[in-house]
UniProtKB/TrEMBL annotation:
It comes from the Bacteria. Transmembrane segments: none annotated. The keyword Transcription regulation applies. Keywords: DNA-binding, Transcription, Transcription regulation. Residues 7-64 form the HTH lysR-type domain. This is LysR family transcriptional regulator.
Length: 292
């Protein structure tokens, strides 16, 4: 009688992390381990199953045909494991997380939902706001963790990488030099808004705010062709284009994405590490395309 291979939880988790992030480095960050350890676990899983699950080249990491078949079953396997562990524990945990509005991309709800599936005993309360109010709430103990832009007078926290900014507009947006530049801007006290206004003032470009709102509302106004906006390159809507060169707009300085946390229990920190890994990207694909 042929013995069926036994799946190893850590190896399956490594495979799923690589599949989700399409990167061995980001997968290792999410699991709090090293790239070498991730590779060893994947190789062990592939040997047990007798199939190549991940295809890897110097520039690309992707699922093999067998990996794509195995993906959903592997995710269900890991979720069942985590639910079983949670069922044996009456401990329910929660933490309050703040994310700067201009950094909360469309991937954030998906990541939070996935964390909830993996660990139903964990509740994450999310607050979106500008970086400064979030840091104040963190310092006052109202939030256990924040993902925010770096403040000039603050050097603590974990650096998750740079945030690059650009001027974005709908392809058909038109502006004639000499006329006030029509801007869609985030609410006052937003770091991105302040950077954009200061850059325009330094170069003596007249401007007029024609739309002020929250993150998604500003992006919708830009996509609709109502105005130009200063946005993080990785979050700019796909139907917009970078127009710095076209309109001779000033270069916007990069910032840093910082994580501040007071979490101490292992499982909450693991969940936060998974979220942080999504932001740990040194140069977004869109930024590379714009500057390359």
């Amino acid at each position: 009688m042929m013995t069926k291979p036994t799946l190893d939880i850590d190896s399956v988790a490594a495979f799923l992390s690589i599949a989700d992030f399409r990167s061995f480095t980001k997968a290792a960050d999410a699991l709090g381990t090293t790239q070498g350890a991730i590779s060893v676990k994947l190789k062990r899983l592939e040997q047990r199953l007798g199939h190549k699950l991940i295809e890897r080249t110097p520039r690309l990491v992707r699922l093999s045909a067998q990996g794509a078949i195995f993906l959903n079953a592997a995710r269900e396997f890991l979720m069942a494991h985590d639910r079983a562990l949670s069922a044996l524990s009456a401990e329910r945990r929660h933490f309050r997380l703040g994310i700067a509005s201009h950094m909360a991309g469309p991937e954030t709800p998906t990541l939070l939902a996935r964390l909830n599936e993996r660990d139903p005993a964990l509740t994450i309360e999310v607050r979106l706001d500008n970086s400064r109010p979030l840091l104040d709430a963190f310092d006052n103990g109202d939030l256990e963790a924040v993902i925010v832009a770096q403040e000039d007078d603050r050097r603590d926290g974990e650096d998750l990488g740079p945030e690059h900014f650009g001027w974005f507009a709908a392809p058909g947006f038109d502006w004639r030099p000499g006329e006030p530049l029509r801007l869609a801007a985030f609410l006052p006290c937003c770091q991105v808004r302040d950077i954009a206004m200061q850059a325009l003032d330094r170069t003596n470009i007249p401007w007029n705010e024609v739309f002020v709102g929250s993150g998604y509302a500003v992006m919708a106004a830009i996509s609709a062709g109502l105005a130009v906006g200063a946005l993080a390159c990785r979050l700019a809507p796909a139907d917009t284009v970078e127009v710095s060169e076209r309109f001779s707009l000033p270069e916007l300085p990069s910032s840093r994405i910082m994580l501040h946390s007071t979490l101490s229990d292992t499982r909450s920190r693991d969940a936060l590490r998974t979220l942080a890994a999504a932001y740990r990207e040194h140069r977004s694909v869109r930024y590379d395309a714009e500057v390359g």
